[in-house]
Amino acid sequence: MKKLVVANWKANPATVAEAEDILAATDEYLAGVSTPPDLVFCPPFVFLTDVLSRLGEGRLVAAAALGAQDIAASDDRAQTGEVSGAQLKALGVRYVIVGHSERRAKLGEPDDVVHAKLLAALRHGITPILCVEEPGQLESAVGGLEAREVAGIVIAYEPSWAISTNPGARPDTPDNAVASSAFIRGTGARILYGGSVTPDNARGFLEHFDGVLVGGASVRKADFTAILSQS
Ligand code: PGA
Questions:
Q1: 202, 167 in Cβ contact below 8 A?
Q2: Cβ 215 under 6 angstroms from ligand 1
Q3: Are 51 and 19 in contact (CB under 8 A)?
Q4: In 3D, which of 93, 96, 46 has the Cα closest to residue 71?
Q5: What is the predicted pLDDT for the residue at 98?
Q6: Residue 8 beta carbon below 6 angstroms from any ligand 1 atom
Q7: Mean pLDDT, 10 residues at a time, over the chain (231 residues)?
Q8: What pTM was estimated for this model as a whole?
């Protein structure tokens, strides 16, 4: 199976012109490649429509899908500020990041909300990209799901200490990441590594995982295409 590279833009970039620039650079890179990896761009909500439209052009059509960074846990429409699974699905969103450590730690998102968001994604036919760093998070997120449902999701092993913006961050080593993510193996899910992935270390992670979840480097166009060139 092809490798999967997920770009988690977080609250970047500031403008739609910069977003377009990253996508144009990726499109240009893809022009010289015969078998690109599967790509998922997860922009902030405000850029979903623009990114979707650009993904309908050039080489991005065949290679890239649209992802969101969050989803409302419930389908209740009376939730000011939320974006529902029904809306994301209707727009053309195919993936959604769930359980990211920044939402858990900085925004206080507990395990039961992560579980509810995972269910919301599945209910609307959107593939969750579930981020976990220890077995308890995985168990609570997928609790009650059938094995075949778990096998159909994407699970990112992402140690929070490795995320580039956290104080003292450093990437894991591929060997250690493989050992630490043993609790995810056997689920049948596509398993990604995330945390300070750069052009310098991407190859090692891509050799041992089904793909990578890239944060900071995914909005630096030269870094991002250099990571793609290793997958
Ligand atoms: P990073 O972020 O690549 O900047 O470490 C990864 C993530 O938070 O998903």
A1: no
A2: yes
A3: yes
A4: 96
A5: 98
A6: yes
A7: 97 98 98 96 98 98 98 97 98 98 97 98 98 98 98 98 95 97 97 98 98 98 97 89
A8: 0.98
Q: Please give the single-letter amino acid code of residue 78.
A: A
Could you tell me the two tokens for 52?
């979707």
Amino acid sitting at position 46: V
Residue whose CB lies within 8 A of the most ligand 1 atoms, among 69, 160, 209, 214, for a mutation test: 214
